[in-house]
Design brief:
By secondary structure, the protein is an alpha+beta fold. The protein has 14 helices and 21 strands. The chain folds into 3 domains: 37 residues; 311 residues, Aminopeptidase; 137 residues, no CATH class. The longest helix is centred in the first third of the chain and has 27 residues.
């Protein structure tokens, strides 16, 4: 009996100790935390303790795991890459829409996030996958009663598969390497907004912009050389040929609010994207890249939609960059959730104004062909370092930061304003129909018609006086610059002539593609080269696109 009593006593003591240990565990690690840790799939960045980034198969496996765990995610195909990889487009909603038609009348706004367009710049890829997971696996998923979220986490799938530690060695990790900037065609996808030569950007326009019509595009990148402490930088669409009310809204309301939320709620510092205009004299100012719509955020703004370029600081450590991007994307979604109706009214107003302008253009309606760059009224504060500028015999000087920190309060030169403009037309006419030109216009989503009968019209022509190709190739092209004069003339247009009216929402895109002096149009990118020089005498010809300045009733039919 004594032995049995001893055993019972030992069991009781063991049970008490075991219960105390369990109680202590649950006090330190709540059940919800344990279960979420067990259930939550990790990205390669997280699982590797931020020493590696995801390969294509890692991304697709992660997405499939999310699909197994949630009915709030559906996957579409954005495109098939040049090397044959299917580029996934995540569609997140509650309920998840089966198509854009399912959104008709339900009031939800569409927000599109893309990452890895330059596959050496990987923070957005990891952060967007983490964000998708953390939204759809929450017990009460946020945002989805007002928003449908589209995510293309691995936009440049081919470039991603060329991961090597030797790529982008100037940035701080991940130590196991990143991909390359270019896609499977050796093209920079963030220079393809106008020429649309890559399946990736063609897929973006066709399967995202034209299909889902997102109110906002966010494009995630990593910086290339600016020195500052802030891990997150950003800028909006910059081209003044878009609706300027959208530019004003983003720089004066939306982005300052997101910046403040990111700093106060998530303790992440951010500044407008850019670099010093003069490293020898940094106080001169800070400026972003150019306004041309070859850059996708500028292209989106021409389409009367909001766009944010996110550039994460290359010299911050990899984890800081990923988490900074994560909280930046989260702050953007929070803003869109709170201001959904105001954003919708803004972009619908921009579309309406664009259509009305094209119906009867006035003398005040113009298209800018040259710009001045002016500073915004408020200066920006850059938490930087003192710098040493080391001259080189050719090219840009080498800039080396010193150990001493320095705060710069400088003008931000990001206001591109018209310097020289031309009248905005009622329509463009193209009598020499080239299937490649027609296809390019349709790829952008433009409404294109053709004349059903010949007609004589007074139009404005552009007579080329000088055309020069660049001395060096850029993205497979010798970019043209042109000089010439505009003339009014009476011209016969045959049946079948292309007619592109500007009374359409994408009129700004049409003008950018077709204006002869556009700094990023189809003439710049060599699409009209065969038509502007005589076959035998090498004489310069009139530009084969004519501007109809006033409304005329014509017999036309649509081209699909």
């Amino acid at each position: 009996m004594k032995y049995e009593n001893y055993i019972r006593y030992e069991r009781k003591i063991f049970f008490i100790y075991f219960s105390l240990i369990l109680l202590l565990i649950f006090c330190i690690f709540p059940l919800s935390a344990l279960s979420s840790t067990e259930q939550k799939p990790l990205t390669v960045a997280e699982a590797s303790n931020f020493t590696a980034t995801s390969r294509y198969d890692d991304v697709t496996s992660f997405i499939k795991e999310l699909q197994r765990k949630s009915s709030l995610l559906r996957v579409e195909t954005l495109c098939v890459s040049p090397e044959g990889r299917t580029v996934p487009l995540l569609v997140i909603g509650e309920p998840v829409p089966s198509s854009p038609l399912a959104l008709s009348g339900d009031g939800r706004a569409v927000v599109y996030i893309q990452a890895n367009i330059h596959a050496g710049e990987v923070e957005g890829k990891e952060a967007s996958l983490m964000l998708a997971r953390d939204i759809i696996l929450k017990e009460k998923p946020p945002f989805l009663d007002k928003l449908v979220i589209l995510i293309a986490p691995i936009f440049n799938a081919d470039g991603n598969e060329k991961i090597n530690p030797a790529n982008r060695r100037n940035q701080a990790g991940p130590e196991k390497g990143v991909g390359v900037r270019y896609n499977g065609q050796n093209l920079d996808l963030n220079r393809d907004g106008i020429k649309l030569e890559s399946p990736e950007v063609q897929g973006l326009v066709r399967n995202v912009l034209m299909r889902w019509d997102p109110a906002l595009l966010v494009d995630c990148h990593t910086t290339n050389g600016s020195y500052h402490e802030e891990p997150v930088t950003y800028v909006w669409g910059l081209n003044p040929n878009g609706d300027t009310s959208l530019i004003k809204y983003m720089r004066e309301k939306m982005m300052p609010s997101i910046n403040k939320n990111l700093r106060e709620k998530y303790k992440v510092l951010s500044i407008p994207y850019g670099n010093f205009m003069d490293f020898n004299n940094p106080e001169k100012g800070w400026r972003p890249s150019g306004p041309q719509p070859r850059y996708l955020t500028n292209y989106i703004s021409l389409r009367n939609r909001l766009a944010i370029l996110n550039e994460n600081y290359a010299y911050a450590d990899y984890k800081t960059r990923v988490m900074g991007c994560y909280y930046f994307l989260l702050s953007i979604l929070e803003y869109c959730y709170d201001h959904k109706d105001g954003i919708a009214q803004l972009i619908h107003s921009a579309d309406r104004k664009t259509i009305q302008r094209g119906m009867r253009p006035s003398a005040d309606d113009t298209f800018a062909v040259e710009y001045d760059l002016k500073p915004l009224k408020d200066k920006v504060t850059i938490l930087g370092w003192e710098m040493e500028v080391i001259p080189r015999e050719s090219g840009w000087p080498r800039v080396k930061k010193k150990d001493k920190k320095k705060t710069y309060r400088v003008p931000y030169f990001s206001d591109f304003v018209p310097k020289r403009s031309v009248p905005f037309p009622y329509a463009y006419l193209i009598p020499k129909v080239n299937p490649e030109i027609t296809e390019k216009l349709l790829q952008h989503g433009l409404a294109v018609e053709k004349l059903r009968e010949p007609v004589s019209l007074e139009v404005e022509s552009f007579r080329i006086k000088e055309i020069k190709g660049a001395s060096r190739l850029f993205q497979g092209h010798y970019l043209n610059s042109v000089k010439g004069e505009y003339h009014l003339e009476k011209k016969e247009f045959p049946e079948g002539t292309l007619f592109i009216a500007t009374a359409q929402p994408l009129a700004n895109v049409a003008a950018y593609l077709l204006e002869p002096e556009s700094d990023d149009g189809l003439l710049v990118w060599n699409f009209f080269d065969r038509y502007v020089v005589s076959q035998w005498r090498r004489e310069l010809q009139s530009y084969p696109v004519y501007r109809l300045l006033k409304p005329v009733n014509l017999v036309k039919e649509s081209i699909e």
